[in-house]
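Entry 12.
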Amino acid sequence: QVQLVESGGGSVQAGGSLRLSCAASGYTFSTRCMAWFRQAPEKEREGVAFIARDSSTSYADSVKGRFTISRDNAKNSLYLQMNSLKPEDTAMYYCVADPSAVYCSFARLGQFGWRGQGTQVTVSS
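Predicted 3D structure (tokens):
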């Protein structure tokens, strides 16, 4: 059974940092594209960052230069280092895994990806 368990969310002031973690189990982590998505109240869910099995990465324009996605295949874990946080980064953040070992894309991950329960990030001004 696939499990994705996020942690590390919390409340910070603008300009602060948080590091999200996702512990994955139930599938071959190292062969899958992994991603972070977020959803704010009354807004569409959006892809934040993804990392392919070769560790190549892609970011949403809104977080480039501030967020860094990484993975540790030995620990079956995904991370998101978030720096220079802004109030508009406030959202529920979800760890997402591609169910098959094919190419990475936000569209594919959003439509077909396995998703965890999420961790809340709140940034105050």
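Annotation: The first strand starts at residue 3 and ends at 7. Helices lie at 106-112.
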